[in-house]
Amino acid sequence: MQAKIFFGDVEVTKTKIETIKNPYDGKIVAEYPLCDESDAKEALNIAQKAYHDNRQIPLSQRIAWIEDVIEGLRENREDIAQTITAEVGKPIKFSRIEVDRCVETLRLSVAAAIEHNGETFASDAMPSGKKTIAYTMRVPVGVAVLITPFNFPLNLIAHKLAPALISGNAIVLKPTPEAPLTAYKFAKLFVESKHRSPNALSLVYGDAEVGSTLVKSPIPRVISFTGSVPVGKIIISQAGIKKVSLELGGNAATFIDKSANIEEAAERCALGAFSNSGQVCISLQRIYVHHEVADVFATALAKEADKLIVGNPYHDDTFMGPLINEEAAQRAESWVKSAIDEGAVALSGGERKGFMFPPTVMDKVTDDMNIVCEEVFAPIVSIVSVKDFDEAIGKINNSPYGLQYSIFTNDLHNTKRAIEEFDCGGVVINDIPTIRFDIQPYGGSKLSGIGKEGPKYALDEFTEIKSVVVC
Questions:
Q1: Is 113 helix (H, G, I), strand (E, B) or coil?
Q2: Which helix (H) or strand (E) element contains residue 106?
Q3: In sequence order, what DSSP letters do the residues of 356-418 get, joined into one string?
Q4: Average pLDDT over residues 133-142
Q5: What residue numbers bound the domain in which 410 lies?
């Protein structure tokens, strides 16, 4: 099936077409038109004109618009899930979960929009002031550019698109080139809604040329991007005076205290490290274990990794499918081999077959190995034995990233220290740092980005405060 461009409500195709192959079996599963600089400018101009209409329509109509899309997602759940699996190789049971989570994200966006209001303030609080009717309003920013990744090709669009549209903006969406059909089917539900604001959503595909055109343009007031640090740095350098929201990944870590339930911790850590083939910004990558339980935990984790079913993503019982491309698999294999050459030990996995890379548990690693200090974005997790929690805190925080960390412990003192001392955007107690609830504020510190997602918090990114004083 061929994805198409949306210039507002108008579907457009082009003669220059790119194909998408399933990363598991190499079969062609989708086609999409290659866009260029002129297409990006056309989409921006349409959005600029549409914004003035979209901001005027009542919230009740925008709510009805989102509810139409929710109904469409429910009716087309299996088709969209199959599309996700076809394009990015995500196991089908997790693709279905992603569609369900997308529905929840849209519902949360509606609820958040209803409560997203201004507040009154006391203009006579200081001697220089006087008594007035004074309050703030939340108003849409105007045009927003949304750039999304492959690992959650549906729900991460929803986390940007729903808050941006329901708050009255007009949108240009540039989804990942790896999943154009998923984005097209999702956007089509918005465009075909009878409650839509005309031309408020445009969809274009493309590479750096299209992205740079969108980012550099003076038309958008917000750039919302999820992806790599290098691209995030380019966006910052090119955007100019705009609001920029960046979710740039991480190097998630946990500490296994000697007071923890080791078997439960190992089971959860396997899930956190290997879900979605490790292609998650908060995928568990570093595990620091109290030295008294390090060997027991390592054995337990390797056993859990070996239980996982790896293979055909279309099978209902498959836990882990392929990496997104061969380059990613080659990089993962080379990092593992490099670590082994430097003294690390692979307790499970470590060798790829094409795009497939098995769940890999590494032990005896050191802080300077790539599999520890860089973002792997592959199903590799490293175990590091530490003498105590003090050492673990120092090692966990010694990262340029700071998205989410966690601790497994039954020690209240260590729980409090983790909450206070972990240098990151989110802390999880007695579970994996890979947990993300769509309702929560999500975003990190340091190189992990700027701004927050989660519908309630994303509304702040897509609106501005207008101050009103009635004398």
A1: helix
A2: helix 92-115
A3: B---EEEES--TTSHHHHS---SSEEEEEEESSHHHHHHHHH-SSEESEEEEE-S-HHHHHHH
A4: 97
A5: 252-437
Q: Are 344 and 364 contained in the same domain?
A: yes
Cα 50 to chain centroid, rounded:
27
pLDDT in tens, 154-170: 999 999 999 999 999 99
> What's the rounded Cα separation, in Å, for the pair 422 and 14?
50
What mean pLDDT is reported for the chain?
A: 97
- Which residues lie closer than 8 Å to 10 by C-beta, 6 or more apart? none
Do both 243 and 260 map to the same domain? no
Q: Is 2 helix (H, G, I), strand (E, B) or coil?
A: strand
Does the pLDDT value for residue 68 go beyond 90? yes
What radius of gyration, in Å, describes the C-alpha atoms of the chain? 23
Short-list 96, 91, 97, 135, CA closest to 117: 135
1 — pLDDT class (breaks 50, 70, 90):
confident
Catalytic residues: 247, 281
Angle formed at CA 443 by CA 397 and CA 322, multiple of 5 degrees: 90
At residue 451, what is the residue type? Answer: G
Instruction: Say if residues 434 and 282 touch (Cβ distance below 8 Å).
Output: yes
What the block records as the tokens of 131 is 């008594």
CATH number of the domain that residue 315 is part of: 3.40.309.10
Give Cα separations from 119 to 138, 143, 461, 468 (angstroms): 9, 25, 17, 10
The answer to the question of residue 442 being in a domain is: no
Work out the pLDDT band at 444, boundaries 50, 70, 90: very high
Q: Which ranges in 221-283 belong to alpha helices (H)? A: 229-239, 262-274
Q: Does this model's pTM top 0.85?
A: yes
Closest CA to 375 of 446, 426, 298: 446
Widest pairwise Cα distance in the chain? 74
DSSP 9-59: TEEE--S-EEEEE-TTT--EEEEEEPP-HHHHHHHHHHHHHHHHHHTTS-H
